[in-house]
Amino acid sequence: MNPDLDRLQPYPFQKLAALKQGITPPAHLSPIPLSIGEPAHAPPEIALQALQASLAGLGRYPMTRGGLELRQAIRNWAVRRFQLPSASLDPERQVLPVNGTREALFALAQCVVDRTRSNPLVMMPNPFYQIYEGAALLAGARPFFMNLEADQGFLPNLDAISEDQWQDCQLLYICNPGNPSGTVMDEAFMQRLLTLAHAHDFIIAADECYSEIHFTDTAPPPGMLGAAVRAGYTDFERVVVFHSLSKRSNLPGLRSGFVAGDARLLEHFHQYRTYHGCAMAPPAQAASIAAWNDESHVQENRRLYTRKFDAVLPILNGVLEVQRPDAGFYLWAHTPVDDDTFARELFAREHVTVLPGSYLSRSTATGNPGQGRVRMALVAPLEDCIAAAHRIRRYLE
């Protein structure tokens, strides 16, 4: 067996299941899960109709690169969304559909990390999406954790990273808007990362899967593609971005997203994926085209999440240290006791499941930045989110 498999840690939800084991919550209270970020709003009807109308496409092998119509739809959406020049993003060379960004975020590291170089580092936020860590380990690299602390606005402290560490970095994962904090990087911060990438020859993998869940249509979260263009990097060298229909369009089961950016990098990534056998099924492509071409369902999705935050936060005010995020559907709450005790007792007393923050992060020389926090995903129906907030308040009081 690949010995690097032994370096993988249990997934957060495995730890959560172990934490809850042996506990019998009150039978008269219905379970309310706030632990998993699985969208529960209705998928857009136009995507479902396109999927059903294209089932005959299952009778042929799809291309790894996807159909041109899909790549053009993705390209047109990205140009509109991030205010790119009209000639940006060649759909033939700079756009690659993927079967959900999870597999692509993992596979990128296997493609780009040179394990023959001494001390290859893959940098990532801490807390983080655990796929980043697993990708680094199985690529033969060492994960380097950039702690995200409240006093830094839940952004990495770039000045705390040494020149030698930047020099060893081969791949940098960022998550913007952040999971779990919901913090949004501005373009100036992203352009500073771009300067570092060009100075030290590493690749930026920008996970932007929560970018379409925000609370103001007048100032949506910026993206790395726009930051690169406005910094003069019009060819997106050393940059790839990841977007998904899972959160934006409530289509997690479709497994549809895309990678876009550096043409030279995507050429190699396409070759890797061809061997890996990662082609998107034609019906999924048809549904994806319909979803990327429509914004009305995305606006309705944002309205539903905004209602949840507007309802839940006043209930929690005064009993729990928590703020509205810049974007995304998570609350990143500071707990009055250690996070696993909070999660265990809340489940035992109120039948509400939240995820301990320490399960999403790693201990470093300066501590575990997830300790003393819990992540709560407001994906349940509005009435359940309100009920959960009242139960949390009752537990705390």
From TrEMBL:
Q: Which GO terms describe its biological process?
A: lysine biosynthetic process via diaminopimelate
In its UniProt record, a GO molecular function of this protein is: succinyldiaminopimelate transaminase activity
Pfam families noted in UniProt? Aminotran_1_2
> Is Transferase a UniProt keyword of this protein?
yes
Instruction: Could you list this entry's UniProt keywords, alphabetically sorted.
Output: Aminotransferase, Transferase
Signal peptide positions are: none
Q: Which cofactor does it need?
A: pyridoxal 5'-phosphate
- Domain (Aminotransferase class I/classII large) ranges: 32-378
Q: Record's NCBIfam families?
A: DapC_gpp
Q: What is this protein called?
A: N-succinyldiaminopimelate aminotransferase
- Species: Ectothiorhodospira marina
Write the lineage as a comma-separated list. Answer: Bacteria, Pseudomonadati, Pseudomonadota, Gammaproteobacteria, Chromatiales
